[in-house]
Amino acid sequence: MNWYLVYLFILALATMVGVFRFKVISTSNKCFLLLVLITLIVEIIAWQLAMKSGTNIIVYHIFTPMQCALVLLGYYKETKIKVFFYLIPFVIVLGTVTSIWIQPIPSFNSYYICFELFLFIFLALTFFKRLLIIETNQKLKNFPFFWISSGMLIFSITSIFDLGTHNFFIDSNTYLDIILRYIRYFSNYIYYSSFIVAFLVKQNTISDQYGK
Amino acid sequence: MGSNYEILLTFIVGIIIFGILVTFIISFVFLFQKRQAKHRQEKQALKIAYEQEILKSQLEIQNQTLQDIAQELHDNIGQLLSVARINLNVMEEEGDDKDGYIKQTNEIINQSINDLRALTKSFDGDFVQQFGLEESLSHEIARIRKTKRFATEINIVGEKYSLGYEREIVLFRVAQEILNNALKHSKAKNLTVLLSYKPETFELTIKDDGKGFDIERIQQNEMNQSGAGLRNIQRRVKLIGGTCQISSEIGKETQITITLSH
Questions:
Q1: What are the coiled-coil residue ranges (chain B) (predicted)?
Q2: Does B1 contact chain A (CB < 8 Å)?
Q3: ipTM of model
């Protein structure tokens, strides 16, 4: 079974669901629809590049800051926390600086990815905190960002663990490296599947609940 | 060996982290639901407090209005009728009443004064405060009995205790409304009131042997249609922490039971 194809299928399905529900989904969710669409394109390009030239690292140098900016924009739209919006130029500049001077393009931008994953964890936890503060009669399942944040939390923590132990396992145990790879795949599946759920459920946002 | 130990340790740590993560999300769901339930309870408590405040204001206004009317009836119309009766007495004593009209009129005025006094007491909320629910209801029943259109009965079971002025005045007004409804719509011949003082609960039952009504149809009616009075009764009883059970069928007797905790 080609795990990568499953991953691409989930991305394509999330994009289709998002496009189909475009008129209904919240503005913050539209940022994530754009993110899924870009991710799908990037992953296809990365796949082709890997097959043709053997390396696709350049794609991730460009994609990671974009992903970071879009996630920040989505969370800003959802929570109305202005700091998230002001962080967007910062993460783009940081991505550029990392790709030019700290980990230039032939090397993998692991530092920036680590930073991004910690940022995602922070965003997800901030959203959870906000969700606990609001007084609402709405069901938890009807908050799309609950699904996205849960998926993001699982994805980010798993990826940090994976990144931190990757080299160690490659050197010491190939079998464990394969398991780790599957864990990585599944965390990606969970992450992007959470987008599908988020596009399908009732579109409650916490900023709406503050207004009520 | 050392390497294998590190690998195992790393994997255990990984599993623990993942476990914590899943536990966190599940705990969050429970915490959210708990907070939501608390929020709903607070909202409900606020709503009840607000409605009770409204009811209290309504009661105060209603009492004040009825008391003003009672005062006016007693001081003005009552006095005028008394003066008219004195004049008629004088005329009667002077021997002008050849056909007995003056005596008849005097009796009518006397009856009117008595009815007016009864009505004044019925309107006066202070009467409930002074004499209690039982006495006020007995008085109300006696007033209805005087119309000679209904056979009335009031029964008291158990050892009497006070329910507090607010609850008693609400109960009294509710009972007045039930009795008035029976007088207007039921075409009953018998009206029975039962006050049951139990150790844990107090029950007020009002029963008539009239034509009855379809409860379901009445309760489904819109706000402006018939049934608004019944809904109002239920709402008022609910606000003093009681329950109101209505049982009726077309062609059969109607029984309304109000239950309050002691």
A1: none
A2: no
A3: 0.74
